[in-house]
Fold each of these.
Amino acid sequence: MNNDHDARMQFAIDLAQRAGELGLRYFRDLENLTIESKGHQDLVSQADREVELFIRAAIAVDYPQDGIVGEEHASVAGQTGYVWVIDPIDGTANFVRGIPAWCVVIACASEGKAVLGVIHEPSTGETFHGRLGGGAFVNGRPIRTSAATSIEDGSVGTGFSNRADTENIAVLIRALMADGGVFFRNASGALMLAYVAAGRLLGYVEQHMNAWDCLAGMLLIEEAGGAVVKPDPKTVLQQGTLVITGGKGVFPKLHELCSEAFKF
């Protein structure tokens, strides 16, 4: 099984990098990009759709019996129990405005649990990847979550979910700052999760994320020695999940702050 996961891992790394090259071509030609709104602070571009189709086509060739769940196109049912979970461009709001903070996200799940994840940031050339039981890496170098024991020792990534009460994130940020912490937001949840895995952020929290935005990054964080609130494997692919992650020294505090702010 691990050999199969190794092969899938290499396939996903290569595919994310090739998809990133395609995304960059659109990013460098923004004046000709078609952009639409899907809702409040929720944009989609021709690039999102084309990059996802590119990823889906590659999966259909190499793993035709696997399922696919993606942000921009309909789900594909598979026969193998494996499901590829993809976000072609996470950080579309940045992408369409020329801000170089966006990434390609590819995870592969079995029975609702991620077995591998790749987050590729084309603008920096960084590829974060991890496999269940195999550690987490950036450009081949091992990464670890922060060893900090206080939220005063760094920044906590925060996300805004349009599927949750907007007041809740304001409550959380107020509590975080009252305890000596500071918040960080770059409008790409997947990228911030990768930064947690690499120890750049103490943690990342968001009241609700879709599977394609968070499964890869949460696996990376666990493989890098961090802690996460585990999603429900039965519902996460269709319904998304609460996300609370961090280095083990700060995770209990982040969980406490989120439980008060998000009311769970």
Amino acid sequence: MFGKKKQPPIRTLIGEGTVIHGELKFADGLRIDGEVIGDVLSEGDAYSILVISEKARITGKVIAGHVIVNGTVIGPIQSTDLLELQPKARITGDVRYEVLEMHQGATIDGELRPLKAEEKPSLKLAAANM
């Protein structure tokens, strides 16, 4: 309602204890509780959501629309809509985003850059929601 995009359903789960080697492409929604060694990419132009849980680990590039991170990512992240960094998020790599929401405790070892670098970045303060 009022211009918000409808969140796509999460159709795929990479369970805890599962390790995938290679490029992973998905549509709609994906939740990762295990480990992916390779790139995780959303396919097509459709709006997508990627949830990287507290126990998850990705070593590779991540590209999706709405990205929620509460685990570990070693590699660059690009979020074309909203990037949410939860308190246990650990990122080693450059981060590009449209809108960024970062909670206290999340860490980034890399460069933060908005996708539209010439415009002023849009940031949401998580503490403001309390």
